[in-house]
Amino acid sequence: MKRRNIFFLFIAGLAVILIFFAIRKYITTKNCLPWIKAEGNILTKGGRPFRFIGANAVYLVFYDNWDLDIEEAIKTAKDANLSVLRLYMDWGWGKDEDYDRILDIASRHGIYVVLALTDCCCSGDYPSSEKYFKVHAPFCNITDKQTAIAFKKRINQVVKRKNSINGKFYRDDSTILAWEIANELEFQHFDKSDVYEWINEVAAYIKSLDRSHLVTIGINTNDHNFFNNNSLYEIFNAPDLDFFSFHFYPSIENLSVYGEGMAQDGADRIHYLTKKFISFAKPVLMSEFGVSNSSDSNVVLRSNQPEVYNLILREMMDAAFMAGASGIMFWGWGVSEEKTVPMWWNKESHSIKDEGFCHFLRKYKIPN
After folding, report:
1. How far apart are CA 100 and CA 164, in angstroms?
2. pTM of the model
3. Residue 46's Cα: distance from chain center in Å?
4. CA distance 280 to 226
5. What is the DSSP letter of 161?
6. How far is it, in rounded angstroms, from Cα 54 to Cα 113?
7. Which of 64, 126, 201, 242 is the most buried (most CB within 10 A)?
8. Residue 151: which of 181, 195, 183, 194 has the closest Cα?
9. Burial zone of 294 (CB within 10 Å; 0-12 exposed, 13-18 middle, 19+ buried)
10. 10-49 residue pLDDT tens
11. 79-128, pLDDT tens digit by residue?
């Protein structure tokens, strides 16, 4: 009799354990988005081509500090026909818990996220390269061995992180469309061979931790050498890089030329860049673009001549898509209350209250 009771207790205990794991699996996999894959030179979702409009939303990690609404920013992005948002890890004073929340909200609203693992942009903002690498870009000195070790350690932490809100491990979370190795690596500081080897090494390392997610890198193509130097493209063509992500802003000097002339100049360059990257038989995103990299210039065009601004962006988007790009991500997206924040970025983002622009986004048809 006692043996029978022990047997039944064992079975009951086993059943409880199985139910527990089943419930946990359900909790951690509900709201999962379909995985995005790279097939040939296109991205796919559920076996079908995935083409999208997205936006950079790097300032979301600051929202808690200014009592701004992250969920409102993400929900309204969906309302404005956006499918993907792009963020930088370890940016400003953003904490890992901020990314947990952003990913959880994005998953619930059906928005994908591209996570750049570090930001290497803008060494010119610092008095010396030493200050730049120490203060802003600690993982971007690619020829320093200790830097490489530290970066891999951080990548390991991020990829294996367990979301404190929904329990998903980042490497298992399909909300993350891709890992971006770096935003705008300043390749001009290094030998081309070192750049290629670094990209190849980091991409392979990410793949060793996570075989599910795509890997890319954000490439600043405003350097005019991209239009006459084929070797620049070669250094980014690492085997474990799944797709290319390029950034393009028309020259600020051209901002005085309002109208189709400026739009066409930018469109021609974008078409060339897209075709060039896609010739390596990998998908291509224009993952940062806008009228300029000057917030004041963007504001002037949006407020005074919104129809011209929308025309210019349409021409740029059409050029990328017609050349074969899988997606575009403009700069940037947020809530309208960003304008009240006493920080340098308070005028840079669009919001759902930009009615004309959001109407343009909703009505935009991706050309074949």
Report:
1. 6
2. 0.90
3. 20
4. 15
5. P
6. 9
7. 242
8. 181
9. middle
10. 676 665 555 544 444 444 445 599 999 999 999 999 999 9
11. 999 999 999 999 988 899 999 999 999 999 999 999 999 999 999 999 99
Q: Are the CB atoms for 33 and 107 separated by under 8 Å?
A: yes
SS3 220: strand
Residue 47 region, left (φ>0) first, then alpha (ψ -120 to 50), else beta? left
Which CA distances in Å does 301 have to 297, 334, 357?
6, 18, 12
202 and 239 in contact (C-beta within 8 Å)? no
Quote the tokens at residue 39: 């097939």
- Whether 312 and 263 have beta carbons less than 8 Å apart is answered as yes
Q: Determine the distance from the C-alpha atom of residue 235 to the mean position of all C-alpha atoms in its chain, rounded to a whole number.
A: 21
Q: Can you tell me the distance from the alpha carbon of 297 to that of 336, in angstroms, rounded to the nearest whole number? A: 18
Cis before 40? omega within 30: no
- Tens of pLDDT, residues 167-192: 999 999 999 999 999 999 999 999 99
- Tell me, what's the pLDDT at 12? 60
Alpha carbons 155 and 206: distance in angstroms, whole number = 7
The CA distance from 179 to 7, in Å, is 49
Across the chain, which distance is largest between two alpha carbons, in Å?
A: 92
Strands in 36-39's sheet, in edge-to-edge order, are: 36-39, 42-45, 48-49
The phi and psi torsions of 227 (rounded to 5 degrees) equal -105, 0
Nearest residue to 213 via CA among 173, 181, 245, 247: 173
Write out the two tokens for 250.
């028309």
Query: Which residue in 241, 242, 141 sits closest to 194, CA to CA?
Result: 141
Q: What three-state secondary structure class fits 162?
A: strand
In the predicted model, is pLDDT for residue 135 greater than 60? yes
Contact status, residue 291 vs residue 301, Cβ threshold 8 Å: yes
Angle between helices 260-278 and 306-322 (to 10 degrees): 20
